[in-house]
Write a structure and sequence with these properties.
Blueprint: H1 18-52, H2 55-60, H3 65-75, E1 80-82, E2 90-99, E3 102-110, E4 116-123, H4 127-133, E5 138-147, E6 150-158, E7 167-171, E8 179-185, H5 189-196, E9 200-202
Antiparallel strand pairs: 1-9, 2-3, 3-4, 4-8, 5-6, 6-7, 7-8
Length: 203
């Protein structure tokens, strides 16, 4: 025989207060609206990015050489060596700013053969400056190359293959009126000479 207590129906639970239901509903709406807002903003950002992003242009857009060179010429207390190698050479980096304790003019290009060619110029350079520009390279001799002031004797440097100083050439400070000029990169000597032949000393 089943006990009377097992036949009892549990009393109905008390109804949830109206205020609690309203609070939960408002909280749910707030979270949902926040999620929708974030998704809408992300959609707008992605749409703008898709319309404006051009991978080839962002990777290949050359720096503004003329404006930077003019600034360097105006600011530097010495004639600035400015190369003008032509459209077959692609500028990659150009700046005039402090570097290893010396205010430095720097400009680099990709040559017609796809090699790296850079020029650094500064006055009162230190061994740290030269070591950073010609990182890992060693002096191996001298050679004659023609620049803005005609044929001059440069010291020649050699570094690791395909390094930024695979080949290096240093001139100054006596031969340049007080500055040290360094050409370096991965190009052949003939391309360095072609590049150097286009350099003007601007003041």
């Amino acid at each position: 025989m089943t006990s009377a207590s097992s036949d009892r129906i549990p009393p109905p639970s008390a109804p949830e207060p109206v205020e609690d239901k309203r609070s939960k509903r408002l909280a749910s709406y707030t979270v949902r609206n926040m999620v929708f807002s974030v998704l809408a903003v992300l959609a707008l950002v992605l749409a703008w990015w898709a319309l404006t992003f051009n991978p080839a242009e962002s990777q290949r857009r050359p720096p503004e050489v003329t404006q930077s060179a003019t600034y360097a010429v105006d600011e530097a207390p010495w004639p600035v060596w400015v190369p003008e190698p032509g459209e077959s050479w692609t500028p990659t980096v150009v700046w005039y700013e402090p570097f290893e304790g010396a205010q430095t003019w720097h400009i680099s290009y990709v040559s017609p053969d796809g090699e790296y060619v850079a020029l650094h110029q500064a006055a009162d350079v230190t061994s740290a400056w030269k070591g950073e520009v010609l990182k890992g390279a060693e002096e191996v001799g001298t050679l004659t190359m023609s620049g803005p002031d005609g044929a001059q004797t440069w010291t020649e440097w050699k570094g690791a293959p395909q390094s930024n100083a695979e080949r290096g050439y240093v001139l100054g400070p006596q031969a340049t009126g007080g500055t040290t000029v360094v050409l370096h990169g991965t190009a052949s000597q003939s391309e360095f000479e072609e590049f150097l032949a286009t350099v003007l000393a601007r003041d």
